[in-house]
């Protein structure tokens, strides 16, 4: 995510930052410094995250069509690409804030690539489960839920000035769950039940996140007007 320092927020972009422990990781900070020194902008990193997401989604969607012996390696590769997408979300913020490379279009690149990445990955997860209309529908439903959580977060920022990153299954947790659980499903004797469980977990966890953020927002607004 492209984020700006507290002293120079762009219009429409909150100065709040998602609490992520990895942001203080020395290795990640060195990578961010290297990217900044190479004049790679936060927006370019945000776009790179979409490429990682597209490759991950394509990897997942192709799994049902492949011979059994190829599925786990490709699922593992897709999981690593999902993690690369997540790391890109951290690096663009580090470059934007810590290295003062924020741009006027940062507010757009802060959100739009993330929403597209969610659709690409989650649709791929659905098609990994079933390469048919049911799988596509499941993936698109997960995508809508993920976009809903982001919408409520941004709406809350516009209405209250504070972004709510609560879970139980916010973006970092979704990324970690998919990257770990989907490849593991292809190591099990029966893959489809494991993928079904993953889909239900993603759906229930993301829906719970959406409802919890909406509850927090309404509670805050009602408190302000009481």
Textual characterization of the structure:
This protein has 226 residues and is mainly alpha-helical. It is built from 7 helices and no strands. The chain has helices at residues 26-37, 42-62, 68-97, 106-129, 133-160, 171-185, 191-224. α4 (106-129) packs antiparallel against α7. The longest helix has 34 residues, at 191-224.
Mean pLDDT: 91
The helix fraction, in percent, is over 70%
User: How many DSSP H or I helices?
Assistant: 7
Main beta-sheet annotation: none
β-strand percent reads: under 5%
CA radius of gyration is 18 Å
Helices and strands, in N-to-C order? HHHHHHH
Residue runs with pLDDT of under 50 for 5 or more positions: 1-15
Distance between the termini: 35 Å
Rough outline: globular
What class would the helix/strand composition place it in? Answer: mainly alpha
Count of distinct strands:
0
Task: Please summarize what this structure is.
With 226 residues, this protein is mainly alpha-helical. 73% of the residues lie in helices and 0% in strands. The longest helix has 34 residues, at 191-224.
Give short descriptive properties of this protein.
CDP-OH_PTrfase_TM_dom; transmembrane; transmembrane helix; 226 residues; 73% helix; disordered N terminus; single chain; 7 helices; mainly alpha; membrane; CDP-alcohol phosphatidyltransferase family protein
């Amino acid at each position: 995510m492209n984020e700006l320092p507290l002293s120079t927020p762009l219009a429409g972009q909150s100065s709040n930052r998602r609490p992520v422990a990895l942001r203080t990781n020395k290795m990640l900070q060195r990578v961010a410094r290297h990217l900044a020194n190479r004049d790679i902008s936060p927006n370019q990193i945000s776009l790179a995250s979409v490429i990682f997401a597209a490759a991950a989604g394509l990897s997942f969607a192709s799994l049902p069509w492949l011979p059994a012996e190829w599925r786990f390696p490709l699922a593992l590769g897709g999981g690593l690409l999902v993690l690369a997408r997540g790391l890109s979300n951290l690096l663009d913020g580090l470059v934007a804030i810590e290295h003062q490379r924020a741009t006027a279009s940062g507010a757009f690149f802060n959100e739009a690539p993330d929403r597209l990445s969610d659709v690409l990955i989650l649709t791929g997860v659905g098609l990994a489960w079933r390469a048919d209309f049911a799988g596509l529908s499941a993936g698109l439903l997960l995508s809508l839920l993920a976009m809903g959580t982001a919408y409520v977060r941004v709406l809350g920022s516009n209405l209250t000035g504070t972004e709510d990153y609560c879970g139980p299954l916010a973006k970092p947790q979704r990324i970690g769950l998919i990257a770990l659980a989907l490849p593991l499903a292809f190591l099990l004797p029966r893959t489809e039940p494991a993928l079904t469980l993953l889909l239900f977990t993603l759906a229930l966890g993301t829906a719970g996140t959406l409802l919890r953020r909406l509850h927090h927002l309404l509670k805050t607004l009602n408190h302000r007007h009481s």
